[in-house]
Automatic annotation (TrEMBL), chains A, B:
Origin superkingdom: Bacteria
Signal peptide from the UniProt entry: none
Enzyme Commission number(s) of this protein: 1.3.1.43
GO molecular function terms attached to this record: cyclohexadienyl dehydrogenase activity
Name of the protein: Cyclohexadienyl dehydrogenase
Length: 298, 298
């Protein structure tokens, strides 16, 4: 069997790190998969569940002669992991990650390393689950899911290719994108919708008739607010890490809503219709994109 | 077999009217179900599909000696139907409807009839489908769905009871609610979420990177924006018919979002966490309500 990498080290064995580790083990992508983390009970569980081969509690020992180090900690902690890794890993080690925001890590790398290392390949697997923790680690999690790599001018083509092969080996569809564009696109499709869902549910829960509101809501409301059940800490980290793009998308949305509010207040039926029709068309177009993407995979 | 009503007349045989008609026929709730509408081809189709027993093109003939007249036209047209019915139906005929907003019809009835008739029982079945038209009429559409009756001080208890029995006969769970409360609750759970979904998709479609946005969006975005594929004309009618409550809910939401925007801009992590946690708890509470409601039905 030809491994893509010899030694893969996963920092943090939650859903994201654990699933990559398990996929790499099961699919023979790495000769050895080593976990590092703070809670030994979790690391032992990762070994017991066959998610990793072994674990280390000392970061320096864990990453020694690693080919690839995958940072799979929460978003804001990932910045700190970069700082801890800086004195420990050599230039030959590829550092990559799975965090939802890329700009904050890129800027952290600039601060920490002075010059951003050629072997730093920031990446974002767009996959998740309502479950979390090492017990939820799933070797199939990334199959047919998109992974966005955000190489920069500093990035080595070879390092990027290795990370791409790892993800493709896990069954993912890999694309590359500029750091800023990634953060704007994700602010639009993921971060802003989460903020709207959280704000809506929080606003309604504070209404006088909140009992009747939730008691009479139906399936459309359930779909619309599902993401408000997401992990608050994770989304707290994400919106702060991607502050600039998130605020810009919030403002664009608020402006749009303000126009619609005025149209409703003034009874401008034609403008209301035009906005709803544009949205319906765009939504149907999006459905077609999703459908084609799914068909392309089969 | 004991019928609840002798002659049921359905004005408009789309999804809502056609499904009630078909359920009343199949379940033997009405001795005769008559359709009225503008397009004869649709009315004939309703007969061919077994949705109604027969149809009339003349409204006066259709509603003659009707026990119950069900207005199942689009929201804004329902107001006009009330005006057309006023000179045609006697005090013994129950008039009811299935529109999504109740306050505009109540006020229309005040204008049209002077005193709101005792036999006017406004109602709102909270059921729908992505399909529409008489072909989509489904006798099971209302099974286990909620129907909100909005009786007023003028409403006859007997008329309300007849309408309740019809809906219960169709398998629906019937509750009663004040007109204003209904319109506020629906503005919160249904009308505002539709406005947010339409605005979000419309705003994103206008972004420079709209292709990348839709191309990289995943399942959460699909769920969140599903309702933006809804019929623009129907939602245009609803937001204009329920203007006051909709604007009030929009403003409450916008205020909430403004606070969150400031917290993000200023990096107030604790406040962001508190808002997300409140929302997550409320959303989980709502999930339990929905689950209990579904279990109660089984």
């Amino acid at each position: 069997m030809t491994f893509i990498v010899d030694k893969l080290v996963v920092l943090g064995v939650g859903l994201i790190g654990g699933s990559l580790a398990k996929a790499c083990k099961e699919r023979g992508l790495a000769r050895e998969v080593v976990a590092w983390g703070r809670k030994e009970v979790n690391l032992q569980k990762a070994v017991d569940l066959g998610v990793v081969d072994r674990y280390e509690l000392d970061l320096a020992v864990a990453v020694e002669s690693a080919d690839v180090v995958f940072i799979a900690t929460p978003t804001l902690i990932a910045e700190k992991m970069l700082a801890q890794l800086a004195p420990l890993v050599g230039a030959e080690t590829i550092i990559t990650d799975g965090a939802s925001v890329k700009g904050n890590l890129y800027r952290a790398a600039q601060r920490i390393f002075g010059q951003v290392p050629a072997n730093l390949v920031l990446a974002h697997p767009i996959a998740g689950s309502e479950q979390s923790g090492v017990e939820a680690a799933n070797a199939e999690l990334y199959v047919n899911h998109r992974v966005i790599l955000t190489p920069t001018v500093e990035t080595s083509a070879q390092a990027e290719e290795t990370v791409r092969q790892l993800w493709q080996g896990c069954g993912a569809e890999v694309v590359s994108m500029d750091v800023d564009k990634h953060d704007r696109v994700l602010a639009a499709t993921s971060h802003l919708p989460h903020l709207l869902a959280y704000s809506l549910v929080d606003a309604l829960a504070q209404q006088d008739c909140s009992y009747e509101i939730f008691d009479n809501a139906a399936g459309g409301f359930r779909d619309f607010t599902r993401i408000a059940a997401s992990d608050p800490q994770m989304w707290h980290d994400i919106v702060l890490a991607n502050k600039e793009a998130v605020l810009s998308m919030m403002d664009g949305f608020t402006d749009q809503l303000k126009v619609l509010r005025q149209d409703i207040a003034e009874g401008n039926g034609d403008d209301i219709m035009a906005s709803f029709e544009r949205a319906q068309q765009a939504r149907n177009h999006f459905s077609e994109i999703l459908l084609k993407r799914q068909q392309g995979k089969q």
